[in-house]
Every structure is written in structure tokens, then in C-alpha cells.
Amino acid sequence: MNSKSLTFFLYLTSLISSTDIDQRWRKLSRAINLAPNAALCAISSRSHDKAAAFAAANGFPLSAKVYGSYEALLEDPEVDAVYMPLPTSLHLKWAVLAAQNKKHLLLEKPVALDVTQFDRILEACESSGVQFMDNTMWVHNPRTAAMANFLNDAQRFGNLKSVRTCFTSAADPDYLNSNIRVKPDLDALGSLGDHGWYCIRAILLAANYELPKTVVASYEPVLNKDGVILDCGASLYWEDGKVATFHCSFLANLTMDITAIGTRGTLHVHDFIIPYHEKEASFLAGTQTSFDDLVTGWAKQPSKHTIKTDLPQEALLVREFARLVADIKFKNSKPDKKWPIISRKTQLVLDAVKASIQKGFEPVQIQE
């Protein structure tokens, strides 16, 4: 028996109706093939022919099952888990149905249109005893753990004072006209739900997942003709004086930055979501940096830390998800609550930003 057969089979379900979803699908299919404890075993779509064509083009084994409906896959008693890259507006229906059918769930972000919907998904997962995880890949990169170690080191970083994050990308006209991310009936959260999700998650990581008390959206977000957010930002405030800001946009050059400033140190990252290189990722960390005597240069500069990995971050995500599912299936373990809690906190902040925009940029208090 090979190592993959010792864990569990990962079954996937997809709409496969847009370039955006197709790209995510290809990336996850490759990641599952690379993960040592997962296997591609099935695919579903609204069209059997589309599902079969995708499976043939993306490394699915000849034994993989091909379904022409989501229901057929979810009703298969041999299916253990599903990856669900459907548009956010469809998450509630299909995620709940997946959980009710005892399928462990790897769900695309944003996880829901709002936290009320997400709580219904979590309730279904908890009732069925299945594992939930969202598909935020960069947090599974070993660089992220190294960054967190620095941020939580009182001697090197001190106490967090401020965080700035940014994720922007210059979408082409076709994307801005037809992508699911700009359609109010598919992904109504737009850039806030897509790019902003990553920015908020990075801020929460820097704050050790402590929720802010107050959120204020930045003035004048850019909306398309259907009211979907294309460009926006916000400021987040904690009771102890920490502050964070972020900017997310479909209308600016590709940028993926984190700057976290503490009382003793500073962290800089310029490719936090997709690293410049697949098998290694770096960040800059400085502790008590300072000028030289004449203030013509820096006497103590930040240092570069490079973390290498044998597997890309998306395969590491799959490996962790597969490990948790295998523990539940074979060791009678309980689902890990860490990932649902982190997802819910991210959704809470996202909801507060949206509410602040809708209320004319008034402060919104977060209630956990």
C-alpha cells in the first residue's frame, strides 16, 4: 500500500464556470497530487463533460469518479471530504449540505457573505463532527510560522503598536466586466471579500488573533455599476492602543505587503500571499534598528530571513487538512477548532468594514 492509501481520499466539487475558479481548481489539483497524504479521487460539476475534461487535463487518476451533479458526489458514502471553490453566494447551501452528508470541508474564502451565514455552516459542521478549514494558503507556508515567532518574541519585537497590509492587483477589462468577483449575485463582497480577506487575516496574525474593538472604513471606496466593491480600505482599533490599516483593490499594481511595528522591532514582507519563489520565502526583521552617528545611514539594519520548503504552501495546506481528517477518521479525534475560529474572526472584521461603508464610514463595534 502506498502512503496515500493509508490516510483518506479527497473528493472535490467545483462549478468550473469561470477562469477564476478554473485557475483555483488547477492549483488545488496540483497541490493534492503533491501532498503526501491526499489523493485526487473524484470531481463534480453541473456538466459531466466539463468535469471529465478537467479531470483528464489535470492529473486525475483514471479511476477517479466523475459526477454531473453536486448532489451525486455528496451522497456518495465513500466520499470523505470536499474542496468547494463555488462563488460565495452558494457557500451556505452547498457547505451545509456537504456537512450534513458527513463530508469534511475545505472551503474557499471568503467563507460566507456574512458571519450569520458562516455560523450556520459551522453549526452544520459541528453537528456532523466534520473538520472545517478555509483555503487561505499563505498561513500554511513555514515562513508564516517564522514570522509569527518573531512577532510574539517580546525581546526581539516587543509589543505590537501598528500594522499596515495591502493587497492590490490590476485587473484587466474582461475581469472587471465578467469575473465572478464583480458579480453581485455571485461574489457580492468583491475586492473586500477576495483581497481584503488576506489583508485582514494578516492583521489578525500580527495581533495574535485578538479582535479589534472598532473598525472604520476609509472614505470613498470604488464600486462598479452594480455596487460591488473594487477598491476599499479600513482602519482597525484595539482598546490597548494598537491600530491597523489595510487597502485592497482590483485597480492598482500587484502588491502584497505587511508592515508590523512593535516597541522593539519591525517586520516587513513584500510577497506575503504568493511568495516570489515557490520553494522559498523571505521576510525582513529588525530589532532596535538605528542610525549611524552622523545620521547618514543605518548603523543597525533589518536582517533578511529566508525559509525554504520542499512543498509549496498550497500542498502544505492540503497536507494539514488531510492530517486532521485522517485523525478524525482513523484515531477517533475531534475536529480541530483552531481553523473555524480564525475564519470566523476574519469574517467578523470583514463584516464590520462592509457595515462601516454602508453606514457612511461610521465606526462599527465588533461583538465576538
UniProtKB/TrEMBL annotation:
<feature type="signal peptide">
    <location>
        <begin position="1"/>
        <end position="18"/>
    </location>
</feature>
<keyword id="KW-0732">Signal</keyword>
<dbReference type="Pfam" id="PF22725">
    <property type="entry name" value="GFO_IDH_MocA_C3"/>
</dbReference>
<feature type="domain" description="Gfo/Idh/MocA-like oxidoreductase N-terminal">
    <location>
        <begin position="31"/>
        <end position="133"/>
    </location>
</feature>
<dbReference type="InterPro" id="IPR055170">
    <property type="entry name" value="GFO_IDH_MocA-like_dom"/>
</dbReference>
<dbReference type="InterPro" id="IPR036291">
    <property type="entry name" value="NAD(P)-bd_dom_sf"/>
</dbReference>
<protein>
    <recommendedName>
        <fullName>Oxidoreductase</fullName>
    </recommendedName>
</protein>
<dbReference type="GO" id="GO:0000166">
    <property type="term" value="F:nucleotide binding"/>
</dbReference>
<feature type="domain" description="GFO/IDH/MocA-like oxidoreductase">
    <location>
        <begin position="153"/>
        <end position="267"/>
    </location>
</feature>
<dbReference type="Pfam" id="PF01408">
    <property type="entry name" value="GFO_IDH_MocA"/>
</dbReference>
<dbReference type="InterPro" id="IPR000683">
    <property type="entry name" value="Gfo/Idh/MocA-like_OxRdtase_N"/>
</dbReference>
<comment type="similarity">
    <text>Belongs to the Gfo/Idh/MocA family.</text>
</comment>
